[in-house]
């Protein structure tokens, strides 16, 4: 996929010589359109998008992203001067390699969904979606990373990763990790030798017409193993839809935030995790009877040991979501 090499092309562009004052040195993002990639004086990546019209639109100024509409710019490649044109400029104010790589890859995939010369309105809608990713990035935590890694392993091991990604939760606060509007999958991981997992009581009480599977993974942190980004690469090699790639990258960015660089140094034992992956019917999970909870008591959480619980028979999984595992 072309976007996979865009970051390396950007680094090569920054390291090349031959600069022209008051002009941006650029490269073509794709052969499918006339959009360009360059860099600012600070070294920040900047994408130049040529629209089919000029329409008054408010600029966007955030801590990490700036968007300027209808700007006259002089661009040049390493070989020749490019004539001045009106572009929309999208700037990521970061020098972190993983952050820059994510920005370029996600944005290039978003541009593929647009016509070669999008209207200002079409572009502003797509940019608004992307910019939201960079507005309130969360802080990094090992617990959050562990949960994301486990969910991604389930996707990576699945027979239909596109369907699972399309059913993936939008927010980390969602009740279930995967939900296709009817059936559910909840992923639990543990670093303990026993298969101990914490549940919210409501998680084990889905609506009457839904089927719920609990995926359980035992994990071990290692000095050498698979990071989030090894899993990501493996998943992308199995995906058939560009939109799935975009959502995968968006989920990683939304979950890890501005500390995404730190996640590349955290590894888990991949083989052990794959061998430990098991699926359970929620009805078989040791739980608390809802009838035993006093009235006006809520937010009940407990830890269940699944070590002696029988696995769910794969052949008995009939719904589309569960058959995608």
List the defining traits of the structure above.
alpha+beta, 31% helix
What would you note in describing this structure?
It is built from ten helices and 15 strands. The chain has 325 residues and is of the alpha+beta class. The strands form four sheets. Strands 1, 2, 3, 4, 5, 6 and 7 form a seven-stranded mixed β-sheet that branches. It has a four-stranded mixed β-sheet with strand order 8-9-11-14. The protein is elongated, with a radius of gyration of 23 Å. The model has no long low-confidence stretch (mean pLDDT 88).
Write the layout of secondary structure elements.
Elements (H helix, E strand, L loop, with lengths): L5 H10 L8 E2 L1 E2 L7 E4 L5 E5 L10 E2 L3 E12 L4 E12 L4 H16 L7 H14 L8 H16 L3 H6 L11 E2 L4 E7 L5 E5 L11 E7 L2 E2 L5 H9 L5 H15 L3 H4 L3 E2 L1 H7 L1 E4 L19 E5 L14 H4 L2
Parallel strand pairs: 1-6, 9-11
Antiparallel strand pairs: 2-3, 3-4, 4-7, 5-6, 6-7, 8-9, 10-15, 11-14, 12-13
């Amino acid at each position: 996929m072309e976007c996979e090499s865009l970051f390396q092309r950007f680094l090569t562009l920054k390291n090349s010589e031959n600069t022209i004052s008051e002009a941006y040195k650029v490269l073509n993002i794709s052969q499918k359109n006339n959009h360009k990639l360059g860099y600012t004086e600070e070294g920040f990546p900047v994408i130049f998008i040529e629209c089919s019209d000029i329409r008054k639109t408010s600029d966007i100024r955030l801590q990490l992203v700036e968007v300027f509409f209808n700007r006259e710019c002089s661009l040049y490649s390493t070989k020749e001067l490019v004539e001045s044109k009106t572009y929309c400029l999208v700037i990521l104010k970061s020098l972190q390699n993983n952050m820059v790589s994510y920005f370029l890859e996600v944005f290039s995939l978003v541009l593929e969904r647009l016509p070669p010369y999008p209207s200002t309105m079409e572009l502003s809608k797509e940019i608004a979606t992307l910019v939201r990713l960079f507005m309130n990035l969360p802080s990094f935590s090992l617990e959050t990373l562990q949960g994301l890694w486990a969910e991604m392993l389930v996707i990576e091991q699945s027979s239909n990763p596109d369907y699972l990604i399309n059913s993936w939760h939008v927010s980390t606060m969602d009740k279930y990790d995967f939900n296709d509007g009817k059936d559910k999958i909840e992923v639990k991981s543990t670093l303990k030798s026993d298969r101990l997992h914490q549940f919210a009581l409501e998680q084990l009480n889905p609506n009457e017409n839904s089927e719920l599977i609990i995926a359980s993974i035992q994990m071990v942190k290692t000095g050498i193993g698979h990071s989030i980004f090894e899993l990501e690469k493996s998943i992308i090699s199995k995906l058939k839809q560009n939109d799935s790639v975009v959502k995968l990258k968006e989920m990683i960015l939304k979950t890890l935030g501005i500390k995404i660089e730190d996640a590349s140094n955290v590894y888990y034992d991949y083989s052990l995790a794959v061998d430990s992956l098991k699926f359970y019917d929620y009805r078989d999970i040791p739980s608390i009877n809802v009838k035993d909870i006093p009235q006006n008591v809520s937010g009940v959480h407990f830890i269940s040991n699944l070590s002696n619980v029988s696995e769910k028979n794969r052949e008995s999984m009939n719904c589309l979501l569960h058959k995608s595992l």
